[in-house]
């Protein structure tokens, strides 16, 4: 039997339950389809750092596959057009892929299913628990994190499965090298995509430097690699599985020590879990401005405010520094994301989705469920029982950047600008007043 496995957000060999279903095939075609980024909320394309991290993750997967005599076919286009063609060209009998949240992702799979002449199976590869292990139907998912966590926190999490020792050979196909986009990691975040780097970071954070023991105290640090785990880029691209991270924490707690911090890191993994299941359940409403009459979100779209926020040129030096860090490195801390998001929603009164789209473009850890779920939460239209969070940016600066080191490092101080500017050429006020008008 010939099989095709379509890698999506599961760019790894170890703990990949989807791939494991195809080890007995006669020939196995492994495919990755470059994500199509659609223009949305004045944002288009993928940021250079996000693209770089993804390309490195693909190269690393390809290197791992080469050791097992396999390769990865990297293609560009729509899955629903590409995969049926590959099925025909390579006489494929069955197709497998990981299940991923997201409305476009789901509708793409639906269209693909209607075009394929062979069965398509989807596997859960990105959550701690499988859907059939949840103690409720997805439709009855608790509305907020706390009741969700109470119901799932004691359930056994399946251990990660080993990488296959062998893979069936690929069919005779033309495999192209993974391109290099010429971008290097920023010196402030010198990390690379791929399972090897992800596992190294996990080992260091948990077992070697044992930073996990102070995580609860340091997690709000604005710099990467020194406060929080900074595992998100590998988790989001699937270079690391969330079960591998959970297993490493459990092993550390079992063999070394458990404290509030080790508990807190697992706790954060459940936030990720919650947002993933919410994204599956909420589908397209994850992208709606407001999800009910109760949480109608009043906002405007003032292009200049949005442009200033994106460029890190607002009247809030800390927000400017965060935005500079985000674009330069592709990452910013959870605290920074909350501050920047609150600024966009509450101080600039913009539609939260514009901010989410900008994050989507740049984050090397972009994850549709975590990004849109957290933005909804911040804007008070999602899973937050308190409804909307307005951060006092001055207070946040005093607490999290008391000496202004972070703000200076990322050039957050900008000359203040008038709140509204009117270009006399576009809006000749003097004309309206009947002064200085030129006869035409
Ligand atoms: C507006 C906004 C947008 C966000 N967008 C994303 C995104 O696109 N991708 C993404 O992975 N995370 C997102 N987050 C969640 C969180 O900010 C990042 O997961 C975290 O900053 C990653 O750094 P870390 O790995 O050092 O996290 P740690 O604090 O070390 O946490 C460990 C892991 O737990 C998970 N986690 C932690 N906090 C959250 C959270 N609030 N929600 C969901 N999962 C969490 C992540 O997988 C993270 O890697 C967003 C948060 C906000 C407020």
UniProtKB/TrEMBL annotation:
* Stretches assigned to the Photolyase/cryptochrome alpha/beta domain: 1-128
Region: Disordered; residue ranges are 404-440
Note whether Flavoprotein occurs among the keywords.
yes
Q: Report the InterPro entries cross-referenced here.
A: Cry_DASH, Crypto/Photolyase_FAD-like_sf, Crypto/Photolyase_N_sf, Cryptochr/Photolyase_FAD-bd, Cryptochrome/DNA_photolyase_1, DNA_photolyase_N, Rossmann-like_a/b/a_fold
What NCBIfam families does this protein map onto?
A: crypto_DASH (TIGR02765)
- Family of the protein in this entry: Belongs to the DNA photolyase class-1 family.
Report the protein name in the record. Answer: Cryptochrome DASH
């Amino acid at each position: 039997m010939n099989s095709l496995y379509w890698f999506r957000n599961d760019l790894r060999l170890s703990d990949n339950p989807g791939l494991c279903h195809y080890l007995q095939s006669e020939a196995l075609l492994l495919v990755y389809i470059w994500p199509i980024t659609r223009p949305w909320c004045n944002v288009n394309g993928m940021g250079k750092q996000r693209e770089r991290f993804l390309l490195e993750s693909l190269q690393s997967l390809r290197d791992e596959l080469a050791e097992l005599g396999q390769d990865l076919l990297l293609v560009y286009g729509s899955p629903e057009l590409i995969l049926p063609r590959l099925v025909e060209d390579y006489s494929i009998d069955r197709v497998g892929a990981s299940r991923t949240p997201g409305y476009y992702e789901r509708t793409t799979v639906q269209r693909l299913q209607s075009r394929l002449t062979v069965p398509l199976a989807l596997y859960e590869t990105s959550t701690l628990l499988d859907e059939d292990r949840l103690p409720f139907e997805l439709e009855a998912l608790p509305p907020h994190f706390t009741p969700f966590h109470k119901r799932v926190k004691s359930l056994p999490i399946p251990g990660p499965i080993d990488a296959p020792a062998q893979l069936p050979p690929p069919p005779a196909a033309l495999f192209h090298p993974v391109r290099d986009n010429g971008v290097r990691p920023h010196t402030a975040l010198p990390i690379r995509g791929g399972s090897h780097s992800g596992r190294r970071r996990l080992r260091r954070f948990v077992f070697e430097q044992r930073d996990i023991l102070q995580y609860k105290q340091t997690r709000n640090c604005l710099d990467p690699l020194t406060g929080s785990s900074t595992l998100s880029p590998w988790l989001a691209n699937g270079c690391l599985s969330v079960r591998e991270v959970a297993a490493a924490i459990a092993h550390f707690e079992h063999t070394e020590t458990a404290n509030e911090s080790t508990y807190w890191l697992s706790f954060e993994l459940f936030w990720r879990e919650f947002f993933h299941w919410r994204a599956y359940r909420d589908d397209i409403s994850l992208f709606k401005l407001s999800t009910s009459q109760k949480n109608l979100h009043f906002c405007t779209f003032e292009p200049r405010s949005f442009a200033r926020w994106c460029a890190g040129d607002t009247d809030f030096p800390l927000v400017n520094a965060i935005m500079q860090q985000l674009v330069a490195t592709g990452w910013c801390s959870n605290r920074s994301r909350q501050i920047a998001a609150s600024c966009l929603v509450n101080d600039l009164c913009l539609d939260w989705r514009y901010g989410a789209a900008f994050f989507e473009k740049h984050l090397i850890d972009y994850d549709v469920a975590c990004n849109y779920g957290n933005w909804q939460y911040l804007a008070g239209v999602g899973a937050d029982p308190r409804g909307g969070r307005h951060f006092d940016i001055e207070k946040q600066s005093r607490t999290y950047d008391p000496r202004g080191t972070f703000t200076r490092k990322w050039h957050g101080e900008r000359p203040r600008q008038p709140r509204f500017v009117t270009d006399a050429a576009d809006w000749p006020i003097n004309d309206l007043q009947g002064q200085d008008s030129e006869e035409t």
